[in-house]
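[job 4471] stage=fold_predict status=RUNNING
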Amino acid sequence: LLTVKAQQQQASKSSLLWEISGKDLQSPSWLYGTIHAICPQDHQFSPATLYALKQSKALYLEVNIDDVQEISRLQTAMLMPEPYSFKALFAAADYEKLSAWFHDTLNIQLAQLDKMKPLVIYSLMLQKFFATSCNQPASTELEFVKLAKVQQLPIKGLETVMDQLAIFDSIPDTEEAAMMLKTITDSVKSRDVYYKMMTAYKQGDIQALYNQIVETEDMIQYK
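[job 4471] inference complete, writing structure tokens
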């Protein structure tokens, strides 16, 4: 069989693609583990994944990134209201250190991002910081959207942008700021964590991915 059945994978649990089928389900669905940034040379859908998509009647993403209104909501939600200042989250020396890193590593003036949510700045930082082996990282979500459009499949979202932002809004801004400082202070460790995660992803080892995420120091209390 081209498709991968979950019950056949219990021993190894190494697959990004899982078939959901069984009692009272008239037809199967498929669940796929996506990653928001991966070098194009490391990204390739398996024949089983392409087959599953061809059998599908719709594509559901975490958030419908093909929905103009959702993207518009995201752009609006990225900004914090007055008198918020990202700079105010840091001690002067720490902000200067982070600002210098943004300038030297990402060629970005941190002061221009001062009204943005810490999550937005952190996401930008991580995506650029870790994409050292390619200039234009690919996104599995975007690749799915391209294929779905060829098939003329409806594209929908399981959650809204606001649903997802609410999760990260529950983390205090000061803690997100501390995470950023830790990332650049121990950049060797940060890259090592990223490469281990990417290796596990390319191997489809979801147990290793899960363990790594929940054991990451900054994420433990938000498991």
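[job 4471] summary: The longest helix spans residues 187-202.
[job 4471] exit 0
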